[in-house]
Amino acid sequence: MVIFNPRPTVTFTPSQASIEMEETLLRCLVLKDKQNFGASYLESHLTKLFPVPNWDWIARRLTDDTYLIEPPDAEWRSLAISKGKIWLGDECFPIDPYEPRRHDGCIRLEPVWVKIRGLPPHLWKDFDVERLVDGFRGYVMEVDPMSAEPIDFVRIRFLVRAREDIPKCRQLMFVDDDDDSKQMSYVLTFEIEDDPQSDVALESSDGASSSEGNKSIAAWN
Which of 59, 61, 148, 213 is deepest in the core (most CB within 10 A)? Predict the structure, then answer.
């Protein structure tokens, strides 16, 4: 018989990653989709009208008829707020800045359990797991204590805006503090666990990219 000592799940308080995510939300805009055209329509038209290098337009559902839009820069955001609306195709969509008090409770973050493989067990003890969420807009909620044992994966619960933000894999580089020439590189794989009680809370889809002259001007008129 194997007896496991009961240990509480490790819970993380808000981190720098979660603070940065909140700051990102404050930069966002709320677009009202009265006719329920959906995320695909919004994303494809934003991409056609405002093609920005290395930028993906993503419409994330807040309520049944509102979407969260992150602007590419402060100038675009200011222009959108000053106009208060935007034309996408033949339809006019009201647009407002995201305000915590006004939209509180609209944004639903999704908890997702992920199995991570690729890092030697002895390195997990000294590794800052918060580094795993750098770049995909989330933060660590919990670490399964049983996965702290010497097994081939670590099980971590992330809180993210969408499952699609979690990468399939990522590379980590460790450099010796005393000798920069000594480096260790590891490729970590991320396996999202299926959870029927954790539906995708924020919808998104890939928008088509196109460059159609200077149609962006018409979007504000």
Answer: 59
* Predicted pLDDT of residue 169: 86
Q: Identify residue 107 by its one-letter amino acid code.
A: I
Q: Helix or strand or coil: residue 186?
A: strand
Model's pTM, two decimal places? 0.47
Residue written as token pair 């602007």: 71
- Beta bridge partner(s), residue 67: 31, 61
- Could you count the other beta carbons within 10 Å of the beta carbon of residue 41? 19
Query: What's the pLDDT score for residue 103?
Result: 59
Dist. CA 168–CA 175, nearest whole Å: 24
Task: Report d(CA 112, CA 156) in Å as an integer.
Answer: 8
pLDDT, tens only, 138-162:
678 888 877 655 567 888 888 887 7
- How many alpha carbons lie under 13 Å from residue 56 in its C-beta half-sphere? 11
Residue 42: what residue type? Answer: L
Cα of first residue to Cα of last residue in the chain, in angstroms, is 73
CB 129 within 8 A of CB 143: yes
Specify the pLDDT at position 2: 34
Q: How many CB atoms lie within 10 A of CB 176?
A: 10
Interval 203-208 mean pLDDT: 35
Q: For 26-106+202-219, CATH number?
A: 3.30.70
